[in-house]
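Two quick folds needed for the group meeting slides. Do the first one here.
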Amino acid sequence: MKNWIFIVKAQGNVEAKTIYATLMKEGEWGLGEKTPRRTRIEPDDRVVFYLGSPMMQFAGTARTTSKAIPRSAEQKRHLREEVKIPDVSDYMVSLSDIETWIVPKDAKTIVPSLEFIGKKDAWGVYLQGGVREVSDADYARIVAAAGAPGAAGV
């Protein structure tokens, strides 16, 4: 089992939090063809979600139930036309055990404790690229800082 941060940013006029909420309702997460580490995602991996600028917040957790699989033309059409996500990715990962935190956690307050962030004053560059693998310890730190259930169950 691996731990991931899945990163979402705004697309045109659609805010990151709207895209996140929409994908959680769909029970899936999109990944681009060139997303680093896309092929390393396995069923039952743990995920924490990060909403990019201007929000810069961790928003919730989930478990993967699939590897990254190609989206069908019908799935892409549904997301673009019915769900209103402007830039639909070519791949997706199915999710379960989705937990959206009532109060997202400001990333700036967690950054000092995260091992994967080498340069704390330039932490934003560590949360780019769509997907970031993190250690059990860093996953637990993010979840615990949010006061979310499951923080101790690492």
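Then this one, please, same format:
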Amino acid sequence: MMPFFQKNKPIIIRPYGGFANDTHFFAKARVLEDRKVEHLESDGALRTMMNFYKRMGSEEKAGIEVLIRWKGKEEKIVSDREGYVNIRLPHQLESNSESNEWLEIELELKQEGYTASSQILRPGKAVGMALISDIDDTVIQTGVASRMKWRMMVNSTFKNPFIRKPLQGVSEFYQALHKGKPGSSDIPVFYVSNSPWNLFGYLETFLRHHGFPQGPLILRDIGVDPIEHTKLGGKYGRVKQIVTAFPNMKFILSGDSAEVDTDIYLRLAKEHPDQIQSIFIRAVKNRNRMKRVQKLIESHADINVRLIRHSAEGMAFAKELDLI
């Protein structure tokens, strides 16, 4: 993409965090020019719009060597044509922690003299369940189901992440799921969205500001990727990667009826029946989409799917399922 106003900006590495099981790291970062995007609560529509175009007009750097370090170990990874650094590395980090822990890895651009750290979630030994949640129209009103998706674009372009509102009660609902039943370990939370990686900082700020449980944020590449343009897209693969990384863990899947969350989650439930414990689908105000989703749910009576219209209903179902 073309540089934004100024040429020859400093090159940085943007860590996107990730997760780890007992044997591997699954993380991501990106090498790009520093556009100085900073989210402030005081940002008005003009500054928010400028930040949006800076994010979407990112100038990625391919072929840059990145050093990955943790606990005295070092690996080299070269950024791909979109500037991404895909970290799929084995580790031998012993842990007897019963609860979730956040590991830190260091990323260095040696030729630039630039370093950054990335936070990696590793679920605890006593944790037997996790929540995987969509973001768009599941936790934040985006208008993804609107015609031509114009509402989604307007919201992301002109409203800063501090004034964007989560759907009512969903933060409290997720905190309740995260805490689980009294005496149990906090369950990990993973956020998986079809929003592009360019919006990582925006969405991370939104989730933190509105009190959502901390968890890895896993987005998508807006470049030319044939998998992303299939019916279920790359989102199915991103959710499946989490499920298969923790074969002894059960999962709660949370999404909405705006697009294909229901299709993705039902497919995963059929493929991993011993792991998908329950599915929550938030209803959207679109009759045709709702009819399709309701028929889809009815045709899968053997899978525990709950259609919810508000967070209080989700909370009641979670209690019924003995999740909280």
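Slide caption for protein two: Residues 41 and 204 are 14 Å apart (CA to CA).
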